[in-house]
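[Q] Does anyone have a clean structure-token version of this?
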Amino acid sequence: MRRIILPLLILFAMGFTCPISAVGGLGGQVDELLPDPETGLDTLDNYHATLTNSFTGSLDGQAVESTDTYIQSEWPLLEAKFTTFKTVDENNQPLFMLAGDVGEAHYNQVGQDSVCGVYWGPSAGGPSTFRLAFLLDPVGVARSAGQETVEGISTRHYTFNAASLGLAEDVQASGEAWIANEGGYLVKYILQVTGDVSYFGEGVQGTHRVEYQLNQVNARPQVVYPDGCDPVLIDIPAMEDATEIIRLPGLLDYFSSSTLEAITSFYTDLFESRGWMTASDLRPEGEQALLVFTRSDSNEISFVSVSSHGESMWVSVSVLGQEANTSSPSEPGTTPAPGSDGSPALRVAGALSILLGMDESQVGLPSYHMEAYHNIPAWEGGAVVQYEDWMVADVQGQNIHFNDRVIDPGGSTTTAEAYLMGEEEYDVENGVLQPEGTSMTGLAWTLWPLDPAVILGTAANGAQASGTEVLDGRSAEVYTVDVSGAMGAAAGASLAVTSVSGQVWVDHETGALLKAEFDYQADVKDQDGNIKVSGFGRLEITVTQVGNVTVTLPGQ
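[A] Here you go.
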């Protein structure tokens, strides 16, 4: 069965406005009722409209039956509009399209089960002015059918026929229109036309029916987003000197010429003034930082990532959230460490910073041995691939000996080994200690915490105290994590984690991380930052030999 479908390009058509002509009394005639069906919509604060186009007949002798449905909501003062289109294709398969704008956030979705995509920035030609009323035939001569209330709106009811539309004599048509007494906008419209070649074109005959309905007029002051389409992050400000601003759901990205300290201080003050608490402040060497903020009254968590980019700083703010868990935050026998506020979220989110000595407000472990394994999803060659990263380190205060081994999807191995002795760096190449100097090798240790910090921060959002254990002679608080499918991705962070499950062991005395085992899910993106699919990863961290590790250069 073949189909007749209005061209989809009509979704982007531009409208125009003309006044509605004089009102006629009951049974009276107006010469030009509706020269422009869009008239008056600009006067509304918000509205919801539905339009159905149906056809029953034949095309080249074959039976045809189709229905196209358009749904539109608009908030003119807020520069917001969403339009959806539903029908079936020639193979009787569902066809769904969505397009929308909220300021400079532009939404699109093709397919009912696909992702509602959003991008930020001026759109070509400016925001779409297309309205569903644009698709209606203008009406000339009409007769009054009295007053009527439609959707709670007082209206004037009119009827019209084929002559009102300027149609050929062999075309049969009847229609009705309801126009608001206040505002003069079209509230309801029904048109049914039966014809053949003179109306539809060669080889087509049948009946075309149009129904248009306006409702919820000025009833929704705030933008209502379609299912699956999320608002962009607008309540977090950027620095005054911000350029190339991008706002997406849960994300704010931009460049700034301000210093690292100025940016981190700005966001620390901002979040803490709004009732957030600083859970982690990672400051690897170089011009970069990762701040983690949590709330005691909800399970929301925020990341602020700052890194140098040429002569500017790249700033990325992510806000993730889910409904607060109303169950008991702790179990009997779980005692927070001295100085802790007892929040599982803070204990979990801040544990890595304390372990790595990046939280100056806490005294961490004097020395330790750490082994970490990370299976990381990535997008390469049009498919999801996995990288494996083993980080092994001995740490004593400011002295660190690490060995990092990465296996790529093809099986090739890259290693980085070095001694970081205070401010001095000594690389190890092929098992041989090199003279003191500066190289890129040390970055392996500097950058390693970024992904684990995001995973731990996301895990903190759903952490529940579940008792205590003794690990390698140290008392540890155990936290169970299950943040499954409830998070929005921290899109601007180094890893776009969406869900985490596992356990965390935190040193009772210091708050430092002793052990973590996580399985997680993350949005996998291509090089341009476009989300392709969801991927799965695993992170394991184990700390042992606390207080029993000495780090010196070989031969000393």
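[Q] Thanks! Anything notable?
[A] The domain at 8-215 is CATH 2.50.20 (outer membrane lipoprotein receptor (LolB), chain A).
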